[in-house]
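#struct-pred
JK: can someone run the complex with fe (ii) ion? inputs below
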Amino acid sequence: MVRLETKNGRFKVMQFADIQEIVDFSPDTENLMRAVLQKENPDLAVLTGDQIKSYGVSMLGGDSRAKAEKIISKITSIFESAGTPFAVLFGNHDAFGEATREYQYEIYARSPMFVTGGEYLGGVGTFSIPVYAPNGGQAFNIYGFESCEWVEELNRFVNVPERQLELYRKERDAIREREGRYVPSLAFQHIPVHEIHEILKRVPEGTPGAVRGKRPFDGRYFVLGDTVRPGAFLGENAGISDVNTGEFQALREKRDVLGLFFGHDHNNSFVGSYQGMDLGYCQSCGFNCYGPGFRRGVRVYVLDEARNGEYDTYTVTFAGLFGERAERPLVKVFYDHAASSKAEAVEMGKNVLKKAAIGVAGAFAVKGLIDTMKNGRRD
Ligand SMILES: [Fe+2]
Ligand SMILES: [Fe+2]
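RT: done, structure tokens with the ligand placed:
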């Protein structure tokens, strides 16, 4: 396994959220990924799920394993040519057909730049990665959680179940045993926790820029709250799971986790603080899916041993690197929904029809049915 070390007491992590690509990989996604790696030279990249747009029309039929391999090989080749170690989580859109998460994990794991993290937290798509001081002990730890595990008995996805939280506690305490202290850590996962709403501010319906909550927060409206760091944007509601499994409280109980960061909601990018722990989002970086226009990008986190418990974070966007000029120009009205190939345009058309069908069905269906259909959001 690649041994990760601080440089001059610092360690730079770069989050790639929702690359969400298809076999016809967008040159704009590739250019963005290559450019941010070259500009920032991070010590570790963390891919926080939805690397693959498994529901894309061009992904249907044929050899799913071969398609997954092509997309993943493209992604790993980008990190290999930059010489950047990377770790991988899965999202709700990665697995499809025969290309299971386990199958995809093996492809990522073949890369010499892949950091396993040892599956410490119970299975593929979880990790606990130590970062060492060159001549000392462990300086930091980077956790990755599986946040969209399908639980058969419940017939739904569950956000970081208790079993995984127990594994985290064991790992955290083992580090303390070894190092004599809790080590400052960052944590990543695909789906946000319910407490993300604490970073937001509740406002009256009709407030400009407000998003409507969902699930337990349905009917309430939110804008960015007062603790949010500059340079943030909120473009959609938080795609939380039905049940709060107590993850936030578990991660903050020993104050080792400085922040927990998400992807999944492509149009959100912000970091704020609640009860002494940060929560935040990285916007999406893929151009073959909906997203925040030319503000697609990555989020950087700089841990610094000299500032134990404090870190810097900022985003690097496509606009900041290339301006508003994409390789595959798109009509602005479609841009945020990003059809950048013929196959994707067909898919977009289908989605429009589907939304219309949902509208008609909604007039007649019971509330439970409507909720089920809303959950089919393509993110
Ligand atoms: Fe997602
Ligand atoms: Fe996504």
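RT: quick notes.
Residues 331-344, 358-379 have pLDDT under 50 and may be disordered.
The pocket of fe (ii) ion (ligand 2) is lined by residues 18, 20, 50, 91, 93, 264, 266, 379 (CB under 6 Å).
JK: thanks, will look after standup
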